[in-house]
Amino acid sequence: MEAAARPQRQMVRLRGRSYVAFVFVPTVPVQDWLHEIDATIARSPGFFAGRPVVIDLSSVDLSQSGISHLLASLQDRNIRVLGIEGVEEARLTSAMPPLLSGGRSCVVEPSAPKKAEPKTGAKPTSLLLESPVRSGQTIIFPEGDVTILGSVGSGAEVVAGGSIHVYGALRGRAMAGVNGHASARIYCQKIEAELLAIDGFYQTADDIDDALRGRPAQAWLQGNTMRITALN
Fold first, then answer.
1. Between 20 and 30 A from 182 (CA), which of 15, 52, 96, 222?
2. From CA 111, how far away is CA 139, in angstroms rounded?
3. pTM summary value
């Protein structure tokens, strides 16, 4: 009698995948920093809701109980903390988000076609999109400038290492200079943005002068202040 065949083991299939997260860097006094978070939420309700967040604690010296209180305060504001950076692992408990390291910018393949293939072996320094960026889409290109010949819809997001050029209406979010390029700018033919950011400094829709709405505009940094003016 032949021995029964052993069932084959089903191998566990693992896949790597990158997600984009906001990195919060609390400063002291932490309570004042939380008030700034509250002000941001008040200007743009729901902006952080459902978005993954990483907390970088390298600028503060918090005890284990202090970290717990900070995480609870963010949870009360509907801010989900995906992980923690910049702190000794001994200060974290098993109930806290994991300690992360090695975070870096990642490239998400855009849903719109890319123009002008680069030379073999060379990385592209700009991205040209001929189609509009529709609501819910995210375009991330940390290597350089992003140019969009159409519009950016409400709820859409464009993230660039360099400048952002929109040859239509900008109704969603545009974040330029994400790799520390303070000289980056944002240009659009019709400004109706939900949020503009350059090198981490940002303004929400409520911060933009009503006189500029619907007009061509540009945004740039002057020191630590974002300036938004008409584009003549």
1. 52
2. 8
3. 0.58
